[in-house]
Design a protein that fits this description.
alpha/beta; five-stranded parallel sheet; 17 helices; globular
Amino acid sequence: MSDLSDEEIVVVGGGVGGLSAACFLADAGADVTLLEKNEQLGGRASRLEAEGFRFDMGPSWYLMPDVFERFFAHFDREPGDYYDLERLDPHYRIFFKDGDRLDISGDLDAMRSTFESYEPGASEAFDDYLATSKHHYETAMEDFVYTDRPRLRDWIDPSVMRAAPIGLSLVGSMQGHVEEYFEHPKLQQIVQYTLVFLGGSPENTPALYNIMSHVDFNLGVYYPVGDDGEGGIGVVIDAFVELGRELGVEYVTDSEVDEITKRRDSFHVETVDGDVYRPDETVVNADYGHAERDLLPDHESQYDDDYWDDRTLAPSAYLMYLGVEGDVEPLEHHTLVFPTDWSDHFDAIFDRPRWPDDPAYYLCVPSKTDDTVAPEGHSNLFVLVPIAPDLHDGDEIRAEYREQILDDIAENTGVDLRDRIVFEEGFAVSDFADRYNATEGTALGLAHTLRQTSLLRPPIRSSAVDGLYFTGSFTRPGVGVPMCLISGEHTATELIEDQR
């Protein structure tokens, strides 16, 4: 990267995209100050600590280890300099609401047998599907993810032409793609569940995202553990922050920005407390829609309300952070609970927004792996139910839904939590809006639909203001910790190239 030794840059927002961009820009020589609204860094990857329990409030899956290795390698480091990885076995457990249960692991022979038990010929289809997923992953990551293509002319490139079959995968849905391999609805669900991490449904997510099955079955699922023995995604956030400090990044928490505007040759960035920064360039990792509508003056915004109203946002979530007395067998570290037909749940998120009657949901029990996240004799458990953004989530509906979910867990996993909960905190749509300034309370950002993939996502470089850039889950390459890590690199690269 180029030399930015004369540049002062402010990064607004300390989510993964902002932390990543700050590292790349500081490494290029810039004087980087990162301003974070909340009391801790990490954005949605915050931590909640109370009464001896420690929860990752947002991301809890460590996937795509190759992305993290590549990130640290840029700075002549490796993840092991900051944390170790424990591979989970099984990767996760699935409970179907008809009483069926199975484990997903990295043992591909066992997975072939499992698939074959549901559908004759499915073991061979599984091999074919996984081979396609691996090929798509390797090609897509190199040509469409690590290589940013913000303009149409960037797609007229020999490497893109060679990867044309991968690009054509964008035009179909995941549902149609998966149906070519598997007829059994449970097998379709198994290879599609990762769409939750992309904020989409089988019907609206491009088939290209079959790459997530390679991530799942071949690359594995891990749990990061720091030098002090404490684990969780928060450990990874600590690593990004420490790397930034080593590179010279200054972090300022409890510093909410409420105005960004261009003033002649510099920016005016002001916080709610009246602190003013005048950087040469500004990188915004705050929620893109919030920044455009609430932080920038109208004449410096790229999009109006109609644009944002027309976007398909990724789901929000109803979350319960629970400290539980005793163990929670038979739950695994990661557990998924699926209705036999989950189309109604996706309909409740994307088509007719409402609280889902028969939800699919996720249970995380890190205390199965890490005894530092809960007091002795207790379990740490959080529940995540994907729900539509912008739902009303007042006290009454939350209380009703709490009862429904606790009943559902007991009925479908055999774990009755009611009389054993010693700590509890909820989090839902309005909390995402309040804590993270999330547009309509989305938990993830902008969904990966066909109309919102690649160059069709909001740009990294503002088209309205020179020197203003965006990073994070609303722009390229998209949703999730690994993607936001890459987004920070893309943002830094565009800013540096503009200074040449």
